[in-house]
Structure formats: structure tokens, C-alpha cells
Amino acid sequence: MKKIICLLSALTAFSLAAAEPAATNAPAATNSFTGAKIPDASHAPVRVTNAVTIASERVVYTAETGMLPVLKADGTSRASVFYVAYTRLNETNPAARPVMFCFNGGPGSASVWLHLGALGPRRVKMNDDGSLPAPPFALVDNEFSALNVSDLVFIDPVATGFSRAAKDEKAAQFLGDEGDLDSVGEFIRLWTTRHDRWLSPKFLCGESYGVFRAAGLADHLRDRYGMYLNGLVLVSGVLDFGTIRAATGNDLPYLLSLPAFTAAAHFHKKLPPDLQADLAKARAEARQFADGEYAAALQAGAALAPEERKKIVVELARLTGLTSPVIEDNNLRIDQSVFRKQLLHEEGLILGAYDARLTGRDGDAAAPGAGFDPAGAAVMGPFSAAMNSYVRGELKFEDDLPYEFLTPMPAWSYNVRNSFANASDKLATVMNMNPYLKILVLGGQCDLVCPIDTMHHSLDHLPLAAAYRKNVSYAEFDAGHMMYINRPDLQKLQDEIEKFVRP
Predict the structure, then answer these.
(1) Of 333, 355, 372, which one is at a domain's C-terminal end?
(2) 8 Å CB contact between 45 and 20
């Protein structure tokens, strides 16, 4: 976890490919829609029509691409926010149809990953297991889009995608938790108002740091605009950075990462026979050990008796596939970089951080940690090519600025001192005040950046009324952070979202 940016930095690794022609049965594309004049947003919306088949159902839709301003109290603009919105056509009551606002994380990531990887009607063509295909890349219809059950709005926060601060406005005002919630919240308010969707069922879907944003946004939208949501879809995320960022005196991430290490070792066939035969049993043992003997051992610190330390080393080796010397050298505390470097060290391979199923070679066998993330490298090229082709080709949106997939945010402010950033209280507040708010938590077993056990821990410790805990549900996947690049997981994700959104 090198940076809190872990989250959607989790996206440091991804961008898409070239586009195939639209489906032959789709209506002809148009861009005759001009829309209202938008202050300091240099583009009027462009609208095209198309169709996609989802679960054997033909869905005809409009794709609207444009910019909306982030307004000051006097009505002038502070920034322009880029978005792509998909709305289903031929609905008898369009205003009553669910709408889902989607974003990735970083902070500093555009929404391209959820857009062209998981939810939108077009997706990047990866190998079926999520590994890198040979270039040139391609864009295909997404038969597992969520557009059959909800309209979709993909938001690029300020400084990502084509979104920019207005002239003479300082970008720093948007580069922090509070400024981020204010600007994304203002976008959602204005889009909802302009499109007459205040009476629609409303959902947020965030990935990685986008989960942290979604939790804060749910409370911000309620408090600032009186906007109550129906549900949050939380993908591969974090609520409490103390669960993913180890530090002196904070051993919690080592405990919560262990089941993910076990899943990765199982995938690469590095566990002993009894654990290799049953992944569920192996992960259950990892969780039991982490909650019990391992937690007690780390809590003891230097006071841990030598014979107890040996027992811990043996069990960690059994559950991770690492050698005892590696565990000893790291003082029983294995971070993801060491694990990724050491598990397949004899084969000369390193594991992906975002998806430990994927491997690569970093060329430095003596380095203590992995030199790069093979999972990130697998997605960047295909997603970059696809988005750059798609936005200008099929969506008919033109801008000479580069589309910023992942903008480093070194000056990001988490608005905390002497503690870890934590959105748990905000989520608990809005859930206690809106007893109808549902939460769907989605996570990959091989995600080493934001292991799903960190979300279990955070949600289990919410200051939440017991009666509302039934509103939280989970689904786990075989792959990693971007589980949707694995085709079987993408199909399962669509199933889970459909069950969650449908009344």
C-alpha cells in the first residue's frame, strides 16, 4: 500500500483500446442535440443513439457526452466536469427509471475503468482471464452492461478525463476530500435537475477510492441538497485507510491482507495439499488465524516468546506459500510488495497488485519488492486506446486536450491530522437517517491493494443501528481489484447489480 492513493491508484494500471463498429441493428448515430448553454463549459452536449443486447434483451439507448459546470453561489463557474450518460429509450415513464452515478478513485482517476470495463454498453476486449491481449486493441458490445436495469452516468472529477478547473480558478480547491465531495455533489445535483430525475431511484457506484467518495457523497447529498439515495454499489474499495496502510503501531493491514494472500497462493498452487484442495477452507483458516493467534502475536511485539514466534512462522508459511526465511526477515509482517515478489521468486515471476492472478517479470531478482504491477500494465494500453477512439469516434465528442486517465494527486488533502482518513462515520450517519439505503459490497479474492476483508472489518465496526445491518450485502469474485476484466466475474457482477437495483 504505498499510498492512500492505493484505491483508485488501483487504477494506475488501466486504459483502453480501439473501437469496433456499432451493432448493425442499431439506429443511425446523430449529434443534432445541442442542449442548453452551459456557463464556462466549452462543449454543448452531443447525443448519439445505439443499441446493445443484454441478457437476450435488445436495449436501445442514447449516449450523451458533455460538460457541466461546478457553480459558485453567484452562478459563475469554478470548473467544467466531463461526463458520459446513457439513458434507455422507449421507456413509458423515463423519470421513474433508476439512474446510477459512477466513478472510479485514485484519487485522480477518470471513470473509464467502470465505464469501459464493467457497466457501460461498450467494453474493452481483454483476454477472457483478464490478461493483456496483443495489440492492436478492440472495443466490443458489453453483453453484461448494467444498462438493462439502470441509466448510467459516468463522471470524471476535476483534473481527470477532460474535466478542468475554470480559468483563474485554482485546481487545489478540488484536490481534497471536502472539495471533491462538493464538486462531484454539485455535478450530480445539476445533472439530476437538468434531466428531470429528482423522482428517479438513485444509486452511486464507486470503485477503489471511489468507495470512500461514495460514502461521503451519500451523506453530502443528503445534507446539502436533501437528496436521498436508494443504494450504493461499493467496488474493491476502502472506507478506513487504517485497514490498508500499515504503520508503526498499526498492524491491522497485515491481518486483513492474509486471506487475499492465501487466495493468491491457492491460485498459483503454492499451498499444502489439504488447503489446495479447498479454497473456501483455506481462506476460512486464514481468517481464523488472523483473528486469533496472528493478531495476538503482532500485539505482543518484541515480547512474543521464541517458541510462539516459530509457531506463527510455520502457520504463516502454510497459509501464504512463502518460505520461513522470508517471513522471519520481515518480522512476521508481510506487505503486498514482498508477497508479490517472493511467492513465485524461483520462477522469476512477480504477481500483480490489483490482480494477483496475473504475473510478469521485473528483471531484478535481487530487489526486495516487485518493480511494477503486471495487472496494471495489462489494462493501461487497451483502455487508453479504446477510450481515445470511442469518445471521438462513436460518441462524436471532440477536444484536443489529452484525456487524463490517472492524474497523480500528490497534494491531495484527506482533511485529517494524526489519524487515518475514514469515511465510516459518514456512511453510518446516512444509513441511520435513511433506513431504506442499501449497500452492495463487491470485491475480488485476489485484490492485494484493497482486500475485501478490509471492507468487512470497516462495515462490521460501523456505529450503525442493528436493524439496518440487513441492508448490507456482499459478493466475492475470483479475480482482483478490477474483477470485471475476468469474463466470468463480469457476468457475475452484472447479475449481482441487476438483483440489487431491481425493485
Answers:
(1) 372
(2) no
> What per-residue confidence (pLDDT) applies to 222?
98
What predicted TM-score, i.e. pTM, was given to this entire model? Answer: 0.91
E strand or H helix at 432: helix 424-433
Residue 448 contacts residue 260 (beta carbons within 8 Å): yes
Cβ partners under 8 Å of residue 399, min gap 6: 42, 43, 162
Q: What percent of the chain has pLDDT over 90?
A: 82
Burial of 73: CB neighbours in 10 Å, binned 0-12, 13-18, 19+: exposed
Both 52 and 179 in a single domain?
Answer: yes
Are 257 and 336 in contact, with CB atoms under 8 Å apart? yes
Distances (CA, A) of 309 to 322, 326, 331: 16, 14, 10
**Structural domain containing residue 218:** 6-242+380-501
Please answer whether residues 424 and 240 qualify as being in contact, where contact means their C-beta atoms are separated by less than 8 angstroms: yes
Core vs surface per residue 155-175: b (16+ CB within 10 A) or e:
bbbbbbbbbbbbeebebebbb
- Cell numbers 473501437 correspond to 19
Backbone angles phi, psi at 103, to 5 degrees: -160, 155
Query: Does the residue 1 lie in any domain?
Result: no
Phi-psi region of 259 (alpha: psi -120 to 50; beta: other; left: phi over 0): alpha
* pLDDT, tens only, 384-442: 999 999 999 999 999 889 999 998 877 899 988 888 999 999 999 999 999 999 999 99
Q: What is the pLDDT of residues 310-355, one digit of tens each?
A: 999 999 999 999 999 999 999 999 999 999 999 999 999 999 999 9
